[in-house]
Amino acid sequence: MSSVSSTGSTASATLASLLSASTLQNVGSKTTASTGLSVSGLASGTNWTTTVEELANAERAPETQWEAQQTKLNTQNQAYTTIEGDLTTLQTDIETLQDPSLYQGTTAVSSDTNVATATSAAGATLGSFTFNITKLATASQFNGATGIAQTLVPTGKTTADVSLSTAAFATPVTPGTFTIDGNQITVGASDTLADVLANIKTDTNSAVTATYDSSTDKISLTSSNPIVLGSETDTSNFLQSAGLYASSSTQDATTGDYTIASNTTLGTVQLNATMADAGLKTAITGGSNGAFSINGVTINYDANNESISDVLNSINTSGAGVTASYDNLANKFVLTNNTTGTIGISMQDAAGSNFLAATGLTGPAGGTLQQGDNLLYTVNNNPTQLVSQSNTITSASSGINGLTVTPLEPGSTTVSVSTNTGAITSAINQFITDYNTAQSYISSQQAVNTSSSGTTTPSTLTGDLTASNLASDLRTSANNPVAGLSGAIKMLSDLGIQTNGQNNTIALSSASTLSTALTNNLSEVQSFFSGANSWGAQMNNWLNSTIGTGGTIPNQQATLTQESTNITTQISNLETKVSSDTAQWLSEFQAMELATSQTNQEMTYLSEQITNGTL
After folding, report:
1. Do 129 and 250 have their domain in common?
2. Residues 364 and 277 in one domain
3. Which residue, of 261, 290, 318, is where some domain finishes?
4. Are 406 and 117 in contact (CB under 8 A)?
5. Residue 210 pLDDT grade (very low, low, confident, very high; cuts 50, 70, 90)
6. Are residues 591 and 526 in the same domain?
7. pLDDT at 22 over 50
8. 399-429 pLDDT, tens digit each
9. Count of other CB atoms within 10 angstroms of residue 523
10. Which residue, 239, 261, 283, sits at the end of a domain?
11. CB burial class (10 A; 0-12, 13-18, 19+) of residue 597?
12. Euclidean distance between the first and the last CA atom of the chain, given in angstroms as a whole number
């Protein structure tokens, strides 16, 4: 029998090796039995792996119901989150209605917005006020001396020395062609002034002569016949840059000749060149440390490297309170106050510097101050003339609290200041809208839906007592009268807001009732919505107990969350048990398989021995 035992042991060891490859395989959160070598039933003929899987699935059967319950709990929790959000919005609406400033809001309307516009602040004096505007406020302006630039052809130079590409015209000359008496004259990019003047004579066959007079700094065209200037096909702006227009033509009474001269002096200051090349009659001094002051504010400049444009920008961005500019047609610098009214402008060059004098703002040829004006007006035909330095009328000059009027032109307008009932109406309508949103959502979550075939399907919160109580309590809190109010307005219906007989929504059924209350009983409307013993306080108290810390909804959500967590724990614990049981079942089936294999091997051996006659 030793050979039988040896053969059986060898076979059993081989099978045991195969069975040891059997494993526990996780599928999702579930544990199932499997064997990599598929030896289940190799000896016994029984597919016990499938049996183990069926046993495990049977043991975890309650999980399906638990998971469905957990999904329902989570959906309910989300529904309560939506309800909480709707009620939070509703509470914001109520806080708006409780705010006393809502009832102090005013609106101002001008009878003639061409004369003036108006605005009013909360608490403004109510009434009608007639404003008669006699003069608008203007800003003071300091006009510098004219003729501060060198002539187009500087002293000591000739027209042949002046290139049109760099000439100090107010508007740079563009190359191209222009027309005189139907003849085209060409302006080249490298032409000098002398070239163009000569070309005019040549191209008009000497019918027109062109000259430049340095004493007047003007170009003149002369002809024995009327001179026709320009054409739609002109591509050069020479005539415009030179200020030559047919409308300024004159005829000499003696000779009968016609002359067109530049309508202004031609030399202008070159704002973007360095100060040394700016074309001023008087050179700017001060070197790299130049300075001057305007209204007590010091402006520094570098005459060696900066341009006049740089200095103007420094003035305009400083705190001097003026805007500096250059009028190239009048050939002068201008300072304008940034504020209106009869306010002067003071300025002075620093020692060793002459920017203001060189630009014609100070010095013997300095400019003049054009004094600004104050706004002049009267109110309600009172003979007392009122004054404002700016074109804005406030209580500082009118004495009318909270009213701001902006005059636009002289004239008369009546400004009516009244309570801003529109803002109150909008706040009430917003409350109605958000109240209905909250109630409608709760109703939709509690409804039982019936299909066309008659099948009924409950909603997320169908039968939920907490949700039912929320809808009922909200309706009661909003629509019940407020105890302790002495006025005629004690509940929403006194403002024309009625409940719907078919659901929990409300509506403004009588806009006239609300309008009358706001117009005639504003103080009672405010008392109803605002104050310690008011509808607003009543609603706010209920909302705080519902959505505040420890309120109905937070407590309900905490309960739902805990129930969902408990289910997660139940499933986890059951899965642990299924895993343990599966391992035990596998071990037992493997032992059975080994025993069956050993028995089969011994039976086979005995059968062979009997067949061979050995036994």
Report:
1. no
2. yes
3. 261
4. yes
5. very high
6. no
7. no
8. 999 999 999 999 999 999 999 999 999 999 9
9. 11
10. 261
11. buried
12. 11
